[in-house]
């Protein structure tokens, strides 16, 4: 999603990536299957996996969900720590400021 | 996941005094690294010896490489390392290379020499009997990795090795699998599963001569959940857990994911287990160790 691999480009081979990342073959396989399930890549028998054309609407949807999840975590941490909503919003604004 | 098998075993039986190896059906998947996990005396070496053709006094059927019948082709395509003294003690490292060259057509002396240098086995004239256990294992590994094979059977390869060399062994196994591009497979036994965890694709857990659990590691990690909870719930939780342990701070154990809803109402925390945690919990169920 960061755009390192372009549309239609092939992902590294499963066993090649396992070697590079020093992890087991089954773990990379699982990760590729997950990417396929999310519709980001397509498997071709005997050739490997290539990157699908990116649907920007779907990408936005996925990231919105991710964002909501992280923000919910932030809210529950704030509750446990007794931090007010206002403080929480202030922190978010501060972080946004810093990121700019 | 559908995978082909590189080795298929049916009705393998071997009796010793007080021990029986009994394997109704077992397949080693093709293109992966498979770990044979179990306590000392679980039957790992016996099984590997049978597969390697060292032990012939067993009952049952073994088929290699899609039912290959030509014994030469089977031998030529399998590399085996033993956990005990495999080479004659008065041989030198050089002699190991020369013998391997005679025994196997696809042995590459240049590659053997390079592997010896890379693994720090300097001095080809050193006698096997003068080598440490770690050095001896390195010699065995250099001899099998210097060959073109389709399957490796490694009996406790990591045990005598230091942590750096264990890491190196994991890399060598990954490179081997990558080279094969799905055609080469590795079967190794271990009781140090934590060190080999990130190279293990398929796990076979043995206890007292029987296979008690097997599967792709990612599937096993979904099949089981690590559950931690308060001691107040011990009585209700204990029957649901495998490898139950407790301390003053609470209990811990492995539970089948499908049974997780039986913990309703109890205060628990769950985690995805590591392969070591799965193996230890399952082995605890069957072990004859007490206490």
Please characterize this protein's 3D structure.
The complex is a heterodimer of chains A (100) and B (291). By secondary structure, chain A is mainly alpha-helical. Chain A is 62% helix and 8% strand. In chain A, strand 1 (41-44) and strand 2 form a beta hairpin. In chain A, helix 1 (14-21) crosses helix 2. Chain B has 10 helices and 13 strands. Chain B is α/β, with parallel strands linked by helices. Chain B is elongated and about 65 Å long. Chain B has helices spanning 44-52, 71-76, 93-103, 109-118, 133-145, 163-180, 193-196, 217-223, 234-237, 275-286; strands at 5-16, 19-29, 33-38, 59-64, 78-81, 151-154, 185-190, 202-207, 210-216, 224-229, 242-247, 250-256, 268-271. The mean pLDDT of chain B is 92. The chains are: A mainly alpha (100), B alpha/beta (291). The interface between A and B is medium-sized, with 13 and 21 residues.
Task: Identify the notable features of this structure and list them briefly.
heterodimer; A: 100 residues; mainly alpha; 2 domains; two-stranded antiparallel ribbon; 4 helices; 2 strands; 62% helix; 8% strand; elongated; B: 291 residues; alpha/beta; Rossmann fold; six-stranded mixed beta sheet; four-stranded antiparallel beta sheet; 10 helices; 13 strands
Give a summary of the structure in a few sentences.
The complex is a heterodimer of chains A (100) and B (291). By secondary structure, chain A is mainly α.
How are the elements arranged and paired?
The complex is a heterodimer of chains A (100) and B (291).
Chain A: H1 14-21, H2 25-37, E1 41-44, E2 48-51, H3 56-81, H4 85-99
Antiparallel strand pairs in A: 1-2
Helix pairs in contact in A: 1-2
Chain B: E1 5-16, E2 19-29, E3 33-38, H1 44-52, E4 59-64, H2 71-76, E5 78-81, H3 93-103, H4 109-118, H5 133-145, E6 151-154, H6 163-180, E7 185-190, H7 193-196, E8 202-207, E9 210-216, H8 217-223, E10 224-229, H9 234-237, E11 242-247, E12 250-256, E13 268-271, H10 275-286
Parallel strand pairs in B: 3-7, 3-8, 5-6, 6-7
Antiparallel strand pairs in B: 1-2, 1-4, 8-9, 10-12, 10-13, 11-12
């Amino acid at each position: 999603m960061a755009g390192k691999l372009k549309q239609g480009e092939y992902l590294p081979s499963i066993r090649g990536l396992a070697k590079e990342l020093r992890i087991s073959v089954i773990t990379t396989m699982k990760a590729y299957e997950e990417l396929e399930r999310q519709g980001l890549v397509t498997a071709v028998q005997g050739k490997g996996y290539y990157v699908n054309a990116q649907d920007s609407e779907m990408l936005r949807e996925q990231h919105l969900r991710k964002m909501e999840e992280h923000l919910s975590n932030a809210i529950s941490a704030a509750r446990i720590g007794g931090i007010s909503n206002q403080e929480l919003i202030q922190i978010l604004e501060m972080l946004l400021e810093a990121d700019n | 996941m559908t995978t082909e098998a590189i080795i298929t075993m049916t009705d393998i039986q071997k009796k010793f005094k007080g021990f029986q190896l009994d394997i109704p059906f077992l397949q080693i998947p093709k293109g992966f690294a498979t770990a044979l996990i179990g306590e000392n005396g679980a039957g790992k070496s016996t099984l590997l010896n049978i597969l390697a053709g060292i032990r012939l006094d067993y009952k049952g059927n073994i088929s290699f490489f899609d039912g290959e019948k030509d014994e030469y082709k089977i031998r030529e395509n399998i590399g085996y390392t033993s956990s005990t003294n495999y080479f004659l003690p008065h041989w030198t490292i050089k002699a190991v290379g020369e013998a391997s060259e005679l025994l196997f057509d696809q042995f590459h002396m240049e590659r053997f020499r390079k592997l010896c240098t890379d693994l720090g086995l300097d001095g080809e004239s050193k006698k096997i009997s003068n080598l440490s256990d770690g050095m001896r294992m390195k010699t065995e590994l250099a001899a099998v990795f210097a060959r073109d094979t389709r399957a490796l059977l490694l009996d406790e390869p990591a045990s005598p090795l230091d942590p750096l060399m264990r890491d190196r062994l994991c890399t060598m196994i990954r490179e081997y699998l990558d080279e094969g591009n799905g055609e080469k497979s590795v079967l190794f036994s271990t009781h140090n599963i934590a060190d080999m965890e990130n190279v293990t694709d398929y796990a076979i857990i043995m206890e007292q001569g029987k296979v008690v659990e097997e599967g792709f590691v990612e599937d096993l990690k979904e099949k089981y959940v690590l559950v931690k909870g308060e001691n107040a719930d011990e009585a209700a939780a204990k029957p649901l857990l495998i490898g139950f342990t407790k301390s003053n701070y609470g209990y811990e154990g492995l539970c089948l994911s499908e049974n997780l809803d039986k913990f309703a109402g109890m205060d628990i925390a769950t985690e995805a287990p590591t392969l070591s945690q799965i193996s230890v919990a399952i082995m605890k169920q069957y072990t004859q160790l007490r206490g």
